User: Fold this.
Amino acid sequence: MKTISSAGIAISRWRQITVFLADMLAAIAAWACAYLLRFNGEVPTEFIGSGVAACLVALPIYAILFYGFGLYRGIWLFASLPDFIRIAKAVIAVAAVTVVLNVFLALKPPVPRAVFLLYPLFLLVWMGGSRLAYRVWKEHARYGDLIGRGQPVIIIGAGRAGANLVAELSRSAEWRVVGLLDDDPKKIGRELSGIKVYGRIGDLALWASKLKANHAIIAMPSAPHEVRQRAATVCLRSGVHVMTLPAIEDVVRGGASAGKFRDLNLYDLIGRREVEINTPEVAGMLRGRVVMVSGAGGSIGSELCRQIVRFKPAQLILLEQSEFALYSIHEELHERFPDIECIPLAGDVRDGVWLDAIFAQYSPSVVFHAAAYKHVPLMEERNTWQAIRNNVYGTYKIGSISAAYRVERFVLVSTDKAVNPTNVMGASKRMAEMVCQVLQQGAKNTRFEIVRFGNVLGSAGSVIPKFQDQIARGGPVTVTHPEITRYFMSIPEAARLVLQAAAMGVGGDVFVMDMGQPVKIADLARDLIRLSGYTEEQVKLVFTGLRPGEKLYEELLADQEQTRETHHPKLRIAKAREVSDAWLSEVLAWVAESTIPGDDEVRRDLRRWVPEYMPARRPALSLVPPPLVLQNQSGAA
Assistant:
C-alpha cells in the first residue's frame, strides 16, 4: 500500500510540474503573439531585444504568481468555472506586475503599450483554453462511446441542479437526457448544455410520448416544498417512471446524498414541509428531567422516544404492554443513545398498583400518554368494551396517579376521530380527553394537555402498509369508498408537534395540529399503484363500502368548539366543552361494572357520556360526493 501511495504521489507531482512548464511556455508564447500582433507579424529588430529581456526578467515572477494563486491544485479533467476564475486572477496580477516591472527596467526601446493590453488576453486564452481542451479530449476518450446510448430520460427543472444532472448523465451508460421541462417561461425553447427545454412540467405526458422517454428525474432540490410536491404528483400521473433528487433539507439532515437521485416515494407526494420546533422551549421541558412515555413501542410512542432522547433527559421510562415492541424500542435507543438511561417496563396502564410503584420509584416530571387502542373497525365490533377500558379507564389511572405524584406535565396523544365521533374508538378517545379535562380541574401541580392529529404515514394501523401488501400480491387494492378522505402527516412531524404543544401548554389546553389538506384515499391508492410500477389495468382498484364506524371525512374541531392562535404556526388551541366532576364519577362507576356489556349496549351508553357521539350509518357506494364540511377559525361550519 505504501508503494502504491508513493507512486501515486510521484505521478501527481510530475503532472503538476508538466502543467507548470506548459503555463510557462504559454506565458512566453502569449508574449510573442502580443508582439507579432502589435507589429502585424514583423517585429522590428530593436524591439526584439527589449521584448526578450522583459520576458526573461518577468518569468520568475510569473512562476511565483501562478503557484501563489493555486493554479496547480485543480484536476484538469474536472476543470470548471472556479479554475477559470483562479486563472483570470493570476493573469490580472501578471499584467499588473508586467507594467510595473517595465517601468523600473526602463528598457530601450520600451515595450509597446498595446502589448500590455494584448498579452493578458493571449495568456488567458492559452491557459484556460488548454485546460478546457484537455477536459474535452479526456471526456471524449472516456465517455465518447456512450453518446446515443442509455435509456432516454427527461429532466424536470432547468436550474443549476438540472444542469449538473445533465452533465453527470452525459457520462452515464445507463441514461441519455433527451429534454428538459421547466415552468419558467424564460427558459422554454432555450438550451441547457446542448439539451432543449421543451415546455412546462405539466406537459410531461406529451413530451414523454414525443421524445419516446419512459423515465423522468425531478431536479429541483432547492425549490419550495409545495413546488416539488406538485411536480411529483404531475409526473407520477403522467404514466412515466419518476425519480427525484433529494431536497436540500433532507441532505442537510443527513438523510440523503446530494446529487444522487432515487425513486419517487409516497412522502414526495403527500409529505409536508419540514416542521420546526422551538428547540430551547422543548429542551427546557425535557433536559435533565425524568420523562415517561406510555405506549412507547407504538408508532407515535416510539418516535416520541427517539426525539425525547435527543434532548438528554435524566431518564426515559418506557411503558409498553407488548413485550416485542418494548424490546425493539429499548434495543434501538440503547444502541443509538448509550449515554441516556432508558428503562423498559412491561405492563398495562390500567394496572394502578403497577403504576403507583413505578411513579413512587422514578418520580417522572413529564408523562406522554400514547398508549391506546386506535384501530376503528377492530374496536367497533366485539372489542368495544376493551376500547373503553383501555382508552378511558387507562387514561384515568395514569392521569390520576400523575396528579397524585405531582407530575409537572401530562400530555394525552389524542386523535381527530375524537371530534364528532361516529365510532367507538373515536368516542373513547373523546372520553379520554374529557377525563383529562376533569383531572385538570382538581390538579394543583400538574398541567394536563391534549394534542389531536390525524393519520400518520407509516404507522402500524395505517392503510398504506395494507395497500402495499395488496399491490405486492397483484391486487386488487381495496378502498372503502370513492370519496373517503383523510388528513396525513409524517410520524416525525406528529411527534415534534406533540413535544412543542407539551412545552407550550399552560394546563387544560386542547391543541389542534395544522394537518394541511385532506387526501382522497382512492387517489392515494392509485398513486401507490403507479409508484410500484403498475397501472390500474394491471392492479385493480375495488371499492368495498365503508366499514363499521368509519367516516367519509375527518374533522379537527367539534361543532361547538372554537380555536385561537398560538405562537407556533402549526398549532392552535381549541376551546372544548366543559365537563363536571360528577360526569367522571358516573363514568368510573360504569367502567367498574363487573359484567361486560354487549357492543350495542356500549354504543347506547356512549350517547349518554359523549353527547356529540353519533354512530355512523354505512352509506351506499356513490360516485356523487357528499358535501365536505370544513370548519373555519371560529368553529362555524
About this structure: DSSP finds 21 helices and 22 strands in the chain. The two ends are 75 Å apart (CA to CA).
